[in-house]
């Protein structure tokens, strides 16, 4: 698998593309371009040992193509670990579409993207992610069968992702506070999009004191009014007095600039790639006594939901599997404390052990 120490020392942006693939252990990259529709996308297949690569498609206004490449490589690698630690017979993949999701979407663009997905002949199965919704996936499905998260089937995976995140948060609380009851706990939720809002709902129902921040002022106002959450500024959220920090937007919010500002004893959220550099921030949190729920383990509800659609299972199956994220996170934190090893390393070990076992059995 991947030498995490080596990865932490390498600036991916300074390496040729295939060198980056080698560092992260990728199998395949597909660069997609279509002048007629304006489509510019990258599909990354990281690992298919356990099964076809499954991971969502993100549409984002990246600063440049290298930023998009870096994102899709890291996200697809995360999907390999997420699918493995969740016990799913799936590999890891991801796709990014470079563009503004508010102004550039069209049926034609997503249909053309579907053609590129189909060209991989089932090696990659796509779904929605940031900037993409189930209706967009309908357009993709007009050109390929390798798509999940469609309306009328498993649909929006956000509720299952949020539920699994909530259960993982409770598991962290059991370790850190001696009880998984979150009533009265101060929780800061960064990002109140689909997943974030559902998470706030669960927290409100449990009686937590909730703080929220987001770049979308309209969403903030709506969520605040629905659930009695307190709105805080985008930068202010790192400095408030809280028990739990729940990053539910983009990644790398736990970084050298924020880690010494965070006044929390648990970090448990739904965002991907929450640590800017695993080998650095992961170790620092262990030293500080902060319990960190590895992102790909706690936010696996969405891919569990998609796997249920692939297999034709009913929605209640996905919720039942997402509930088991409590046990997964509890066991990761337990091993971390007993072995004095950062939680991300424990999670990586668990995911890699399953993949290595599959390789040895072939």
Helix content: 40-55%
Mean pLDDT: 93
Report how far apart the termini are: 17 Å
Gross CATH architecture of the largest domain: 3-Layer(aba) Sandwich
What is the 3D shape? globular
Describe this structure in words.
The chain has 362 residues and is an alpha/beta fold. The chain has two domains: 115 residues, Leucine Dehydrogenase, chain A, domain 1 (Rossmann fold), CATH 3.40.50.10860; 170 residues, Rossmann fold, CATH 3.40.50.720. It has 14 helices and twelve strands. Strands 1, 2, 3, 4, 5 and 6 form a six-stranded mixed β-sheet that branches. The chain has a six-stranded parallel β-sheet with strand order 9-8-7-10-11-12, with helices on both faces. The longest helix has 21 residues. The chain starts with a helix and ends with a helix. The N terminus is likely disordered.
In short:
46% of the residues lie in helices and 14% in strands.
Write the layout of secondary structure elements.
Layout: H1 4-8, H2 17-24, E1 28-34, E2 39-47, E3 53-54, E4 57-60, H3 65-85, E5 91-98, H4 107-119, E6 124-125, H5 134-141, H6 158-177, E7 186-190, H7 194-206, E8 209-213, H8 217-227, E9 230-231, E10 244-247, E11 266-267, H9 278-288, E12 291-292, H10 295-298, H11 301-311, H12 315-323, H13 325-339, H14 343-360
Parallel strand pairs: 3-5, 3-6, 4-5, 7-8, 7-10, 8-9, 10-11, 11-12
Antiparallel strand pairs: 1-2, 2-5
Helix pairs in contact: 3-14, 4-5, 6-7, 6-11, 6-12, 6-13, 11-12, 13-14
